[in-house]
Structure formats: structure tokens, C-alpha cells
Amino acid sequence: MKTVNIEEILEQEAMKQYLTEQKIYTLPQRWAYRVGKVFSGKGKVALVDIWGNITYSLFTGTLLDYSAGLSIGGILASRTSATGINALTGGVYGWWREKVFQVTKTNENSSKIKNGLTDLIAFNTFQVPVYAAAVSLGSLASEGEVDLEKVKEGAKNLVMISPLIGPTLGMYMDWVRKRWGIEPAAKGTYQK
């Protein structure tokens, strides 16, 4: 016979009441609330940064892949590998952004230009080397050797478009953080 835990039932009822009072009705809202309860602190920040990196990469990367002439299959393969890489590096990149903001003494009161330049520095010092490593691995897997010309060309092209991608990735990551109740990188959430 199954025993009933009164405390567990009361806790569930309290959660239902809180969700209703806060107008958290939809399934995604409830899921986000529960994930926030399970994951807290730096783990939650890392998960949110990973999510921000993956979703930004899926959108912008698909556009870049399409403009580069990749087929649907090529785009799917590229985005699948990028999702794996971003799942591994997204949280670290969020931490790195905060360190760059700290070193450059950029905060939420700094100008938009300074914030953008700080995000550009963070992007070029973290994402470009990660991208070069990914191109190296892709080249090695497909050709049996690392094609340094492709690695250099890919890294150069990414640096050329980084003034657009770096700051917009930073703004998007901060927007995602805000949706999950996390402070922007300029406030240094990982350091708290």
C-alpha cells in the first residue's frame, strides 16, 4: 500500500497557488519556473548562457551557412556540430564575457559603445579561437589533415563580421539572462 506524504501534497499545492498568483500558466512558463527551482546559482547561469549561445548560433549560423552556399544537409550538419560545441563552451563563454567586462571596467552604466566594444573583445578572444578549432577538427575529419588555409580563412572571415556578431550575441545573451532572472554580464553574476 502506498503511503501519502502530507508535506509533499502541501508543497505541491503551495507551488500551484504561487504559479497561479504569478500568472505562470503556460507549460513553458511552468517549465522555466521548475528549472529555476532545480538549478540555482552558477549552474543556472551556465545553463542559461549555454541556451543563449545555442539559440543565437542556430539562427545566425543558419543564415551564414545559407549565405556560404551550404545545402540543407550541410546546414543541418553544421548546426548540429555547432550546437554540440556551444553546449560545451556556452557557459564558459558567459564566464569569459564577465571577466572581460571586469578587466575593462565596463558596467551597466557604461556607454553602449563601450559595452559593444567589450563584447567584441570577448567574442574575438574566445569564439574565434573556438571556431578555428572547430574548422580544424572538421578539416581533419573530412580531409584527413588540417587545412591551415581553411582555418585561417574561416577565422579571418569571422573576425571581419565580428563587429556585427559579437555585440549582438552579447545583447542577446543578456536578454536571455534577464528572461531567466539573471543579471547581465556587466554585473558579474559568476563572481557573486
Write the layout of secondary structure elements.
Blueprint: H1 6-21, H2 27-38, H3 41-67, H4 72-103, H5 112-143, H6 148-179
Describe the protein's architecture and organization.
The structure is a single chain. The protein has 192 residues and is mainly α. It has six helices and no strands. It has helices spanning 6-21, 27-38, 41-67, 72-103, 112-143, 148-179. α3 (41-67) packs across α4 (72-103) and α4 crosses α5. The longest helix is centred in the middle third of the chain and has 32 residues, at 72-103. The relative contact order is 0.12. The model has no long low-confidence stretch (mean pLDDT 83).
List keywords for this structure.
single chain, 192 residues, mainly alpha, 6 helices, 79% helix, 0% strand
Instruction: Please tell me how large the radius of gyration is.
Output: 20 Å
| Dominant shape | globular
Percent range for β-strand residues: under 5%
Give the topology string: H per helix, E per strand: HHHHHH
Number of domains: 2
Counted beta strands: 0
Mean pLDDT: 83
Largest sheet: none
* Unreliable residue runs: none
Percent helix, as a range, is over 70%
Count of separate DSSP helical elements: 6
How far apart the termini lie comes to 47 Å
> Which structural class is indicated by helix and strand composition?
mainly alpha
